[in-house]
Amino acid sequence: MGIVKISEQMHEDLRLASNALSRSINAQAEHWMRIGMLAELHPELDHSALCRLLIRAEQAGGLQLSELSALAAAASVARGKTAVEAGQ
Fold first, then answer.
1. Angle CA(64)–CA(49)–CA(39) in degrees, nearest 5?
2. pLDDT tens sequence across 43-83
3. Is 50:38 a contact under the CB 8 Å cutoff?
4. I need a surface site. Which of 13, 42, 57, 70 has the fewest CB within 10 A?
5. Is 37 helix (H, G, I), strand (E, B) or coil?
6. Which residues contact 52 (CB under 8 A, 6 or more apart)?
7. DSSP labels for 33-49?
8. What pTM does this model have?
9. How far apart are CA 59 and CA 71, in angstroms?
10. What is the Cα 86 distance to its own chain's centre?
């Protein structure tokens, strides 16, 4: 475990969000980091798709980044098929 230095403003934002969402400050920071990391790796997925991806990963026992990326790629393909089918 390491120490990450963040600005006072970010810490305050974390404190507010963690209280509102009934998470610890550390859990809120980890959530934002997971979402941000996945959003950068898979910009084609929206927030809702990323959250569904994390839920599926948790149901599978928690997945590593490479496994999450494979799930995200599959989700992206599935979303593309859905969009194509909707256009037909």
1. 60
2. 999 999 999 888 888 888 877 767 777 777 776 677 665 55
3. yes
4. 70
5. helix
6. 75
7. HHHHHHHHH-TTS-HHH
8. 0.69
9. 13
10. 26
pLDDT at 79: 66
Nearest to 50 by CA among 61, 42, 59: 42
Domain boundaries, the chain: 8-87
From residue 85, how far is each of 47, 60, 65, 72 by CA, in Å? 22, 28, 30, 20
Phi, psi of 22 (to 5 degrees): 55, 45
For the record, the structure tokens of 78 come out as 């599935």
The Cα–Cα gap between 17 and 27 comes to: 10
The token pair at 64 is 């590593």
Instruction: For residue 53, count other CB atoms closer than 10 A to its CB.
Output: 23
Three-state DSSP state, 45: coil
Radius of gyration of the chain (CA): 16
Average pLDDT over the chain reads 83
